[in-house]
Amino acid sequence: MKNIPHDYYLRFLDPLVHDEVLDFHSKGNYVIHPDFHNSIHLHSLEEEQLKTLTGNELILYPDMHIQLPMNSKNDIDPALTRNESETFFSGPDITFETVEKLVMPITALKSNQQKRGYPSAGALYPIEVFVCSLAQDAGDWPCSEKVLHLLPKSKKFEIVLGTENIEDLRTAILPEGSNIGSPSIALIYAAYLPKTLFKYRYRGYRLAAMEVGSIYMLIELSAKSLGLCCRPWSAYTDTMLCRSLKLNPALFVPMCVHYIGHPQ
Question: Among 67, 126, 152, 180, which lies 20 to 30 A Cα-Cα from 203?
């Protein structure tokens, strides 16, 4: 079968594994909606406690001075360092030609081969990448739909039907109070659970999470080479995001949103 329909994987999926992994994933979901902003919260930590607990390295033996210093001459190759996450996006929208260059590192390395620019256990590649325009002006975006599904092996974009209304997408991933400016595009990384779980079962979810990290680090370095800035983002509600992408939330689970744009 040259092109496998996405629901073909369901034939090989253990429904119990699927239900339990989906239930586990849902435990980490946010409910972000204006109607509930006074009744839900993420944690009850004080600001001083957060300052103490964040940005630290974990030392296994804090009272034993057994560390070895690194050789200060071993400088990091600038090509391997990402820019800091952007706090506020502004500037012109990204051209579609630049979008193509941005995602090229995560496509197939050679024509007609399955190997891509990042590792994947068993070459399953369970993470689907959706390229979403957030620009108010259509610019040179190639179609009226605002969401494109990347096909990394064939190096094409599949148009996601029914995504002409940008406000549905913006509401899903930029909730009220998100003061980060105007990112030009968002890359959304979603795990397709049947493809994630049919071979490696529960461990497949872990492998999918690893794959997301590989993808967005490559995108960070690609963006840096193009003079763009990025910000990984998790402040969204899965079901709202799936609805804006016309995806079934029982089969697709969003793992991360990655904003791309110009710095302030």
Answer: 152
